[in-house]
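Researcher: Can you fold this with zinc ion in place?
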Amino acid sequence: MILVSLGGCERAPTAAPSAAEEPTPSEPAATAPAPAAAEPEPAPAPESAPTPTVDPAIQAELDAVFAASPESSTSTGSPIDGDLEGAIAVPLRGPGFRFNPAKDPGSRYGTVELVQSVVRAAGVVRARLPGNDVTFGDLSRERGGVIKGHASHQAGRDVDVLFYLLDAKGEAFPAKAIPIDPAGEGTDYRDLATPDDDIPVTLDVPRTWAFVAALLSGEGGDEVQRIFVVEHVRTMLLEHARETGADAAAIERFAEITCQPGFPHDDHMHIRWFCAAGDIAAGCRDMKPIYPRQRERLAAAGVKATPAGKRQRKRPKLTTHAEARAKAGPMHESVTDFLDRRKAWIKRPHPGREYCK
Ligand SMILES: [Zn+2]
């Protein structure tokens, strides 16, 4: 079966294994420290309930995530020219999340701040809106540096987060990099040559918003620098947040830091962290924009932001959409129609916002 991701994060659409090849995960016990927003006490399990199988390796990874001290990881350089020391890994699976089984597990390392924040946010969403998990894509390599298929993701401060998705019945659909159109809809085309196996999906707006809100409102939320996401998904998330009376500060932050870059980010969000104040002396460098709020935060910590200079390392070669389309082989009509329609939103827009020009 051919399954081609039609989207990318500064990267080429890549072949991914079929859903059938994904391992059946076992749910580890949720023994990670409770997320910042207190998780309600779980109802006592009936005595006959089977004990969930806990993969000891995953449980150990989860324990390690929350045992780690933020000072133990150091991000140096910039996201497009950087390295990483003392990284920790996002576990392959945990409460409310999984690492994309189609991705290389060697690319799930980040700073302690980043990994703790995303694992915590996944736990908050699971407690508030159970029933669908978030899927994390690439972070960085264990020591950082160039990572295949990405222009950035080098310094442990970037993570790709796939959108929460629902199937046609409104039930959880294990996330894949499926481009979402301005109506909030997409299709898992699987074999692009035949329509027989197509599965329609929709963006799970409430959970996707809940994840970013948990991230921005949670511990360390101030250290999130940017969220790259296609303009129409940004709009949908903001409309939902306003309609449901979400936290005004989270809405304002999200509106400020979201931007659609050259690649559309219509099948995932790319979230970037600022340098931790303690990493700046070691050579951590932020790319623009460095908001006034961040300068004040650093000044309070007695350090000054030093913006990243020009890229030193060679920019990795990234496949263009046209190349990927040519490489993908035969496509049935609704795939080509979708790709034609997609041209309307894959170009970088100029919404005129202060930090998104
Ligand atoms: Zn990315």
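Model: Folded with zinc ion in place. Residues 67-310+317-344 form a domain with the Muramoyl-pentapeptide Carboxypeptidase; domain 2 fold (CATH 3.30.1380.10).
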